[in-house]
Design goal:
It is built from 3 helices and 3 strands. A hairpin with a 2-residue loop joins strand 1 and strand 2. The longest helix has 16 residues. The model has no long low-confidence stretch (mean pLDDT 94).
């Protein structure tokens, strides 16, 4: 899942070298944290959070195939 989030984020941002994706296993499931440059934050979130919602939807659909729960946090 981390790789999927990283590929999507790097395609969206202006500074792909500053994209960092980390994952932590919690009792709720896998938590994937996405860190981008401050100037790229708007590109990852989008107007009214549409792009962030789309990223979460794609990751959720991919996680359902593997019967996992994944939470994407944009930091």
């Amino acid at each position: 899942m981390k790789e999927l989030v990283e590929v999507i984020a790097k395609a969206l941002v202006e500074f792909p070298d500053e994209v960092v994706v980390t994952g932590k296993e919690t009792d709720k499931g896998l938590v994937v944290e996405l860190h981008v440059a401050a100037s790229d934050m708007g590109k990852v979130i989008g107007k009214q959070g549409r792009i962030a919602k789309a990223i979460r939807s794609v990751v959720k659909a991919s996680a359902m195939k593997e019967d996992k729960k994944v939470i994407v946090d944009i930091m």
